[in-house]
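Deviation from plan, reported transparently: S-adenosylmethionine complex.
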Amino acid sequence: MLSAITGLLSALRWNRCPRCTGFRNFEHAGWGNEAVAISYHRHLGEVTSGCIPELIRAASLKVGDKALDVACGAGYVAAAARHRGAEAVGVDFSAAQVRLAEQTYPDIRFIEGDAEALPFSDGEFDAVLNAFGLPHLPNPDKAMAETYRVLKPAGRFAYASWCDATKCIGFSMVYDAIRAHGSLDVGLPPGPNFFNYGDLNYATEMLSRAGFTNVSATEVPLVWRVSSPDAFIDAVSSGTVRAAAVLNRQSPENLASIKQYLRERVSSFEQNGAYAVPSPALVVTAHKSN
Ligand SMILES: C[S@@+](CC[C@H](N)C(=O)[O-])C[C@H]1O[C@@H](n2cnc3c(N)ncnc32)[C@H](O)[C@@H]1O
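Because the crystal trials were delayed, the predicted structure below was used instead.
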């Protein structure tokens, strides 16, 4: 009950919030930076792609389906959907990501567009997929309404997002380090909680508000593999937007302590000379009504 009220208040706040523009512009500038897009592709693409088989299964994707990959980044999900026999399209609000996707998968159509104002007609798609895009949206309710709108009746939606902070060590330890040795209050435009979408109760309420039914979820035990603790720090600092911005705004002394904390935490996940940081994700699926 309490989480239902909290979700509703949060939705109302973000629906009306003029600050949404600030967060959207911040994320747009970050992902629009070609160096960030390339670094994400190099360091995180392999981690997030581990969810794709479950996403494709959850969306019941079949040959001939028309599928949309929202917040497509370099296009991994669109490529997998196409491989499954679907007619796939990718959309992302970053021109740099769309360029990278076009270079990586030249035979797939990628379009620049916002998840909260999808450039598609009502009822165009059998399935919509979204891999790790939700934590970057200022107004997830708007994005869910748009997702619902572009689906055909009985269409399927599947998304992947990091599990909550107690499980997703890869990202939670970055925030643990900053809380322990620096400050999270560095003047960034406020945005929704990064870990919300890996919580099935939160997901069910958010999807129900948009009209979705049959919500279910599966946890996927993703692992973030790095060659050294410093490679992990480099990946976060160069291949993310919000986490990198918080890190990059620390004082030099605090940043040195934060990095030392992260080196020690990553070192604890050593396996045969490499490092395997647990970073599970939740794949959630839901249906549009007939
Ligand atoms: C963490 S990356 C995920 C990329 C890819 N889907 C994957 O699975 O690795 C987040 C992506 O969401 C895109 N994005 C963020 N906000 C968006 C928005 N409002 N509309 C469309 N794309 C957005 C970013 O440009 C970025 O490519």
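The chain has a mean pLDDT of 94. We consider this an acceptable substitute for the interim report.
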